[in-house]
Amino acid sequence: MTLENWGWSPFFAERFIPWEDSGYLPARVIRGEKNYFRVWSLQGEMTVRFAGKIRYKAGGRADLPVVGDWVVIKPQPDQRGIIHALLERKSSFSRNLPGTRKGKERVEQQVIAANVDLVFIVSGLDRDFNLRRIERYLTLVGSSGADAVILLNKTDLCKNPEECKTQVEEISGNSPVHLCMARNAEQLDILLNYLQPGQTIALLGSSGVGKSTILNGLLGEERQKIGAVSESDGKGRHTTTHRELILFPEGGILMDNPGMRELHLWGEADDLAESFSDIETLAVTCKFNDCQHKTEPGCAVIKAIETGLLNTGRLASYHKLKDELIKLQQKR
Ligand SMILES: Nc1nc2c(ncn2[C@@H]2O[C@H](COP(=O)(O)OP(=O)(O)OP(=O)(O)O)[C@@H](O)[C@H]2O)c(=O)[nH]1
Ligand SMILES: [Mg+2]
Ligand SMILES: [Zn+2]
Question: Over its length of 332 residues, how does the chain's per-residue pLDDT go in tens digits?
């Protein structure tokens, strides 16, 4: 096994140069527990903690290691070690953890996963199916620096999966959309093409959509625990509780994730240029440069609604996500 199998590249090698030749090793965080991490290095898998100075020096939560990070460790006896530094991330997937402190609203970046190349956005074709949520995921992935592929799972629970796929393709821009039925491992073969040596793919989506079932189906073994969805509301029960990187024997790394409840964006208003490229392209021909596409005369976006080129749900979603990103920018 090489570091490259685990996603190591010249980008990280360059950042590791200052640590070379003094007993330090690069290692990838494959699982995070409350007080320690599991990492993989050329000395195999081990349990590591981080040196107090990392926590002390960290400007915020975002500077602490998460699953997917490359860290600098010093091995100790019994497959244990200490994390001394976090190597700069190539990409990171973050959300906003809003809250209040001393009565004041505040925002905080929560890095969910690091150094992910591709995200499988998984949606169930049952009650989970929701175009607006898929748009939100696409925006979040757009801000992260990773590419997105949309998987519409549970085709057996949908009367017309092709029709749903067409609807998603209207909002997915350049991201491919695939249908699958993970329970019977059907239509998963095409996904194997995305698994390339050293590439990290994260599975994201609500609880119960079948992320772990997809992972098991691709791997061909019952690696991850699967949980039934509730009969009353069709939602999952948060069966997966830890993020984890799983190395595929044929190459490629998959990250299973717990289902996400709240999905507050962390990014900038400009990030919508990718996930809403249709609207942003129309906006170029609006009469006013700062057109908000609400009531302005000569608005090309409103005109597209009138002619049926664009639907109101999509525009409302654009406004909602844009407002959220602008508010976030103001608070930061
Ligand atoms: N009908 C049907 N059920 C499926 C399919 N794929 C997965 N399921 C079921 O959906 C339920 C949830 O699957 P999981 O793989 O545990 O879902 P998850 O996204 O990993 O959920 P969390 O770990 O809670 O985030 C299980 O009962 C699966 O058997 C499918 O293609 N069709
Ligand atoms: Mg799961
Ligand atoms: Zn306009």
Answer: 899 999 999 999 999 999 998 899 999 999 988 789 999 999 999 999 988 777 777 777 788 899 999 999 999 988 999 999 999 999 998 888 767 677 777 788 889 899 999 999 999 999 889 999 999 999 999 888 899 999 999 999 999 999 999 999 999 999 999 999 999 988 999 999 999 999 999 999 999 999 999 999 999 999 999 999 988 888 888 999 999 999 999 999 999 999 987 788 888 888 898 899 999 999 999 999 999 999 999 999 999 999 999 999 999 999 999 999 999 888 87
Q: 171: Cβ below 6 Å to ligand 1?
A: no
Q: Is 228 in the pocket of ligand 1 (CB under 6 A)?
A: yes
- Angstrom distance (rounded) from CA 272 to CA 173: 11
The alpha carbon of 263 and the centre of ligand 3 are apart by a number of angstroms equal to 27
Q: Which of 260, 264, 301, 266 is nearest to 283 (CA)?
A: 301
Q: Is this prediction's pTM over 0.85?
A: yes
Ligand 1 within 6 A of CB of 227: yes
What is the distance in A from the centroid of ligand 1 to the CA of 154?
A: 8
Domains (ranges, CATH) in the chain? 4-86 (2.40.50.140), 111-256 (3.40.50.300), 269-331 (1.10.40.50)
Contacts of 103 (CB under 8 A, 6+ apart): none
